[in-house]
């Protein structure tokens, strides 16, 4: 259990924990007054942002030794899936909001 | 120093992007701001990252760019072609991809650590007491890393399996299925996963750790399926939003694993914003989250 105590006494852990807690409050604060029409685009945008997991996939891929075929194959798959998440996520969100913008323009014209 | 700066820019654009996304006038720009930050963070990782222990830069560039190219082209095509009405299921599918990505990262990292640590161990036939000492050594230096790997794997795979079921339900490929004891089975399954995880992390049994890891992985996938299966189609956006925040947390575990601030902030931001968004969506539909998750079977009577 020495390693576990080390985990709790390590200043680096607390640095990370601070970031985590501040981020939690920030996430709540940032979107707490969103109008309900924007719920789906916001979900989609957040979906694209958590695609940041792609960075982990790139690191895994980039550190796999060239004869470790399991790591290479899984890492490659992870990079493909992560990119799908990021690129697809942002493009879908943009299309949703494009539709949204057109609608609001039309309604403005009608008024 | 350039890499942390790029990560800082990435984190800031995520926050600004989310903020702008929650106002109708700036929403579209907010999406672009976040995408811009993501591009910087990805490019910086590819070209500037080096292992903190060995100082080595990344290699396998062919594989990395190949993966980025395939994912980018397929993702763009899919997102451009999808019908307006089918967008929520597309979001769910992309969310599942993110969860699978987190799951795969955990698997590769787990394998890497097991191989690395067991290579320095002597073969099986050692007396019991001695093997206990070695057991502690297998992950002894890095219990924190093991915790992060296993938790990231569990959340990632629940999110992956759940999102795929949600996607299948929204496009009509999978029908709602619920049977009477479903809630009991789900809670039982979750308890088994929890017990096995605690055992794995506390005991770190040298001989069975690999089997245990993949058993937990399978059960987590199963849980993801069973968890979404009974939930009605109309409640699906709420569930997707919830799974979305799950994947955010899984990404944040990746941030712990690599000590990577942009993964951490991005993941946690989505985790907390996604949770609040889930609650807001429930409110907009006049449902409580509990009703969506538990009241799916005969719960409509009690709703509202």
TrEMBL record, chain A:
TM spans (from-to) = 12-32, 44-64, 70-93
Q: Which keywords describe this protein according to UniProt?
A: Cell inner membrane, Cell membrane, Membrane, NAD, NADP, Translocase, Transmembrane, Transmembrane helix
Q: Name one GO cellular component term.
A: plasma membrane
Where is the protein found, in the record's own terms?
Cell inner membrane
Gene Ontology terms describing biological process: NADPH regeneration
Indicate whether Protease appears among the record's keywords: no
Reaction equation(s) it catalyzes: NAD(+) + NADPH + H(+)(in) = NADH + NADP(+) + H(+)(out)
Topology of this chain in the membrane: Multi-pass membrane protein
Under Pfam families, the record lists: PNTB_4TM
As recorded in UniProt, its EC number(s) are 7.1.1.1
Keyword Cell inner membrane on entry: yes
Main location (coarse class): membrane
**Molecular function GO labels:** NADP binding; proton-translocating NAD(P)+ transhydrogenase activity
Q: Which InterPro entries match?
A: NADP_transhyd_a_C
List, for all copies, the residue spans of the domain called NAD(P) transhydrogenase alpha subunit C-terminal.
17-102
Q: What does this protein do?
A: The transhydrogenation between NADH and NADP is coupled to respiration and ATP hydrolysis and functions as a proton pump across the membrane.
Protein name (Swiss-Prot/TrEMBL): proton-translocating NAD(P)(+) transhydrogenase
Q: Which organism encodes this protein?
A: Taibaiella soli
């Amino acid at each position: 259990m020495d390693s576990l105590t080390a985990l709790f006494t390590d200043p680096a852990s607390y640095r990370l924990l601070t970031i985590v807690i501040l981020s939690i409050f920030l996430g709540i604060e940032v979107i707490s007054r969103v109008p309900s029409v924007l719920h789906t685009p916001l979900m989609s945008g957040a979906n694209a942002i958590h695609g940041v997991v792609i960075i982990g996939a790139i690191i895994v891929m980039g550190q796999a030794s060239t004869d470790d075929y399991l790591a290479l194959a899984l890492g490659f798959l992870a990079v493909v899936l992560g990119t799908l998440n990021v690129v697809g996520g942002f493009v879908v969100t943009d299309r949703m909001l494009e539709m949204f913008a057109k609608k609001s323009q039309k309604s403005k014209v009608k008024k | 120093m350039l890499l942390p700066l790029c990560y800082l820019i990435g984190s800031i654009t995520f926050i600004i992007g989310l903020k702008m996304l929650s106002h109708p006038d700036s929403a579209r720009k907010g999406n672009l701001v976040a995408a811009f930050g993501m591009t910087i963070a990805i490019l910086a990782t590819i070209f500037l990252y080096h292992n903190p222990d060995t100082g080595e830069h990344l290699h396998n560039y062919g594989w990395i760019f190949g993966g980025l190219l395939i994912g980018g082209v397929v993702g763009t095509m899919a997102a451009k072609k999808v019908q307006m009405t089918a967008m929520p299921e597309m979001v769910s599918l992309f969310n599942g991809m993110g969860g699978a990505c987190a799951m795969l990262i955990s698997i590769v990292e787990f394998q890497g650590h097991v191989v690395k640590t067991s290579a320095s161990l002597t073969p099986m036939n050692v007396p019991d007491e001695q093997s206990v000492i070695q057991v502690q050594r297998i992950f002894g230096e890095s219990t924190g890393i093991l915790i992060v790997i296993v938790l990231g794997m569990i959340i990632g795979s629940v999110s992956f399996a759940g999102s795929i079921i949600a996607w299948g339900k929204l496009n009509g490929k999978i029908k709602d299925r619920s049977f009477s004891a479903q809630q009991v089975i789900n809670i039982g399954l979750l308890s088994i996963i929890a017990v096995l995880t605690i055992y794995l992390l506390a005991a770190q049994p040298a001989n069975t750790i690999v089997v245990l890891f993949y058993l937990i992985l399978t059960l987590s996938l199963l849980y993801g399926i069973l968890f979404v299966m009974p939930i009605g189609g109309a409640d699906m956006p709420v569930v997707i939003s919830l799974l979305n925040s799950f994947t955010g947390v899984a990404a944040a575990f990746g941030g712990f694993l690599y000590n990577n601030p942009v993964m951490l902030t991005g993941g946690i931001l989505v985790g907390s914003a996604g949770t609040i968004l889930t609650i807001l969506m429930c409110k907009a539909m006049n449902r409580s989250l509990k009703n969506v998750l538990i009241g799916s079977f005969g719960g409509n009577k009690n709703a509202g």
